[in-house]
Structures are given as C-alpha cells and as structure tokens.
Amino acid sequence: MAKAKSTIPSVLAFEKKLVPSDGQMFAIQWDQRQATAGVALQLQIKSVRGTISNRLKAVLENDPAKLDAEVEKPNLQTVDHCALPAQFDTLKLQFTFKVLSGVEEPSACNLASFQQTYRSAVEAYIAETKFAELAKRYAVNLANARFLWRNRVGAESIEVVVTQLGSNENRSWTFDAKDVGLRDFGYSGSQELASVIAASLSGEKEFALFEVVSYAKLGPGQEVYPSEELVTEKGSKSRILYSTDGVAGMHSQKLGNAIRTIDTWYQDSPNRPIAIEAYGAVTNLGTAYRKPTNKNDFYTLFDKFGLGTPLEPDQAHYVMAMLVRGGVFGQSSK
C-alpha cells in the first residue's frame, strides 16, 4: 500500500520564543545615568486649538470666502503628551527580554506525519547553523537601540546596557548605539550576547533572561514618545498614550517588532531590514514585500520546509525567524 503523502495540518501553532516585557520610561541626567534610578515619566493632558490643515474640497479651494469661514472654525484637540522635565536631559527606557528554546515542537499540531518531517527539518537547521545568524541579528537590534523607535531620532548620545539575569555569571554588555548601524548586521561587538541568545534558541539552554536599559540624551524638557493606544471609539481625547503602573511605557509588541526587524532576505538589494512578517508587510509604507505571487511569502516557503524540501539558506533563516516569532499557521480544510 502506498504511503500517504504528508500535508499541512489544519491545527498548527507555535509559541513565540522572543518575549519582551512592556517598557517603562524614566527621566535622568546623562552624567548620572549609572548612579540613579531616574524619575518615572508621567503622561500629561494638553488641550490645544489647532488650525485647519487637511486637504479641502475643490468647492472650498476655489471660493476665498468659504475658505476663510472654514479656517475660522476652531480645531479643538485634547491629547496625551509626555516630555522630560526641564532639569533632566536623558530618557531611560527599561524592559526585560526572555529567549526560549523548543522551536522544534509546535504548541499544537493535529497531524503526526507533518510533525515528524517538520522536526527533522528544524533539527537539521539547528545542527547546521546553531541559530548563529538569527541570534546575531537580534543582538545587533538590542545594541543599536532600534526599540527606541522615534525616541532614537535626534539623540545626541545613546547607551544600551544588557544584563543577563538569573545566571551565576551575571554577565553585562554595554553598547554605544550610535556606533551600531540600523541598515545592516555587520557589527561584531555584540557577538558574545548573540552566543547566549543562540544557545537558548538552539536548545543548549532552556532559556535566557535579560534586562535591557537604554539611555538617550535628548535635551532638557524634550518631548518623548511612548506607545500610542489604538482608539476604537471616539472619546474626549484624540491621542491616548500608553502607561503601565502609572509610568509612561512602550508596548511589548512594539519592542518585539523592533527586535525582530531582521529581514534583509525579502529582495536582492534591500534598502533596509523589515520586521519578520508572513507577507513582509510594512504598514507605514502600505507595502507587502513578500507576495505569494513571487513565491517568497512565509506560507509558500514553510510548506516546503515543513514537508522536507530543502530551502536556500536565506529562505531557511526567514522561515525559522517566523517560527521564533510564533503564530497560528494551520491550513484550512475548507
């Protein structure tokens, strides 16, 4: 009797292996950054009267009187705001970051034959690479403070301190983030940190836990940018910022997105790395760089990988990075 051909399970899920906490923001003085804990940043509420600046309909553009009447209307806004106090010049952002092992085991899979071929493919990848390439890129994104997002722009100096927690070695690494590039991963100064991340991803260690603290010298009283909440219902405020325990903060999802911005394999000569996503989606550009029509999206490559078809090295790195990201990848039976 012929052996049944393996297919993709209808139930297939993977737990994420990179787990950042929410970040909390503090104000501190640059020359005292290692000596004091800083002052927790609080959200403020501002009510302002803005001007009409959106594109107008042609009937208003062509009628000066109607345009004057429109401009006279008050554009009242109530928004959340966050800034450094006048006596502090540096933003401190602090969070923890855990790296887990076990990527070779789905958290849910209803097809034993697929689970076997998938496990074999992952074990072969680990044996060949030890997760060195992915770990190097994650480490660089910690060292370059990509996770600061807009807070990174215009900073005079940026320092990142990564400390391994729960370890007898109590290792710590300090990076000058301005010396680490954002467009490539050639920086070699984070190799020791990368080796610790790789050891956990490949299963040599069960997990690794880090504390990440960054200092961005922005200038006294300068505005800072916590995560912005998604407003689904119209309320009194047009911009709502995120806080945790009363302290201005960054969403764990936003920190995680920055750390996994490692995909330079989506095209031959990429302008910049993009976040690991199934279709290479970059929402602020309205573009999907990994379209199924080009056969380089995650599902096209993963189906081959999981069923035992060898991939090119860059394709394998991308697929494994998606599995480290986690998600539900089952194939509908409909």
Textual characterization of the structure:
- The strands form 4 sheets. Strands 2, 3, 4, 7, 9, 10, 11, 12 and 13 form a 9-stranded antiparallel beta sheet that branches. A 3-stranded antiparallel beta sheet has the order 8-1-16.
- The chain has helices spanning 58-61, 64-72, 112-129, 132-143, 191-201, 252-259, 298-306, 313-325, and strands spanning 12-14, 18-20, 23-28, 39-40, 44-50, 75-81, 90-100, 108-109, 157-165, 172-176, 207-217, 243-244, 247-250, 281-282, 287-288, 327-328.
- It is α+β, with helices and mostly antiparallel strands.
- It has 8 helices and 16 strands.
- It has one domain.
- Helix 4 crosses helix 5.
- Strand 14 and strand 15 (287-288) form a beta hairpin.
Spell out the key features of this protein.
alpha+beta; 9-stranded antiparallel β-sheet; 3-stranded antiparallel β-sheet; 8 helices; globular; disordered N terminus
